[in-house]
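Chain A, query sequence.
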Amino acid sequence: MRKSIQRALIVSIIIGLFYSYSGTGYLTWLYRVQNSFSTQIIDLLANFIDYFFQACGILIATLYLRIFPSNLRKVFIISTICEAFFIAAASLLSFAPATFVFGVCMDICFGIVFSSAIALIPGLDKRLYGMVIAIGWAMGSIFSYLIAIPDQGNFIKSPYTLIIYAILAIITIVLYPKNPGEISENIQEESKDKASLPVSTLIIAILTITLIETTVNLGFAFPVADVMNGSVSLALSRSFYAIGLIIAGLVTIKSRQGGLMLCLCAMLCPFLTLLFENYLATRTFLWALNYVLIGPITVICVVCFSDLAKYGISIAGLGLFSRRIGQIAAYSIGNSLRPSPVVLITVTAALFIVSAFMVTMLGRKMALINKAPSLPATDDGIQRTESHSSGITNTGTNKDITNDASEGTSESKEPTAPDPDFILQEFCNRYDISSREKEVLDLVLQGKSNPVIASTLYVSENTVKFHMKNLLKKTGCENRKQLKTLFDDFTIN
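Chain A, predicted structure.
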């Protein structure tokens, strides 16, 4: 367990350093471009264009890592170097078109670096997913506040900060694991042994996070004008982000559903901000409150997609992709409806109801995916899970299974039962059973009914019946009872 926590802490530091130089570098660039563009253009830049290209960067990384997961470290190093360069170029140049272009490149690199950093989380203890992102993002938020203190807030606007960002980027690259490919390969192996990607769950997760983010930002879209006119300290407001992050991280250790409930609470905030946004005295309070409440959304979007990443490491970054799409939608809808407050509140209320329904649905789906208990990792940092078929404890590799079996024999002098997963795979090899048919067979051997199998594998009952027909045909059996008897005889022999 100690090694598991150490690994989680290292990943938190990597994410924290990334967000420190990347998020604060973005603020440095934003403060400098205020002299080149109007407030309306900067609002469009910060709430639409930046989010759009960050989403593009995440999508690029997702597609690439889906095909080449072993190149994870290369992707991280190259994109980190490029992002640091683009932050410097966008912040130093005074030529507006060049500043804009380098800013766009910076956003794309942000999405790629984020995806390759978050891809480390699925290799950790599941219970720590939320705390890893919470600690990392909180580090970045607090760093933004601290670097804004010197020289009455002017230091963050100076080019000297770029030296600090460069140092942080170098440290991040040094800390990044030299063998992250092993993590991705383990996850890819796991996906082959279990089930193909549950597309319906992935779509529900993307839609849910997008709707939550849209609802929250319809009430308060963090208007840049507040920062530009000096009525709000962006760095100070972002420091409150850490509070919501840590609370959500602690909650998700015990329950994914608890994190989703916090997201529902966050969606109540728009109704408060729509009531008080015209009162200047409450502006700082609204910024701080909204940053506290978006903390759980940040955590749960990473946790949910990290859970799904056992089907492919590239999926982990799609949580932020969904948030960015939601923020873009909120900016577009909010701008068009803001002249009609009643209509805006009505639309927000409707989205709240739909989002609450989607949260409930996502909670059920994630409960099914995480139905197998996550046991503490051993000192070798590998999680061990109990096999559903025989109660034998297995690790992620055949070598570890052999070692554990040998150690168990030497200590107890009792024969070790054969690995049920190995027997199942051998049975499938003999009768030419496909991976999907294997999943159905596994559940049939556990005595599950067709409706339960359909729910577990996210398919229709007709699909289950189709696979059952193929299983009986390939094995020469007439019914489930004969199929179970055949498997039991194969196990004995």
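The chain is about 75% helix and 0% strand. Confidence is low (pLDDT under 50) at residues 181-195, 372-415.
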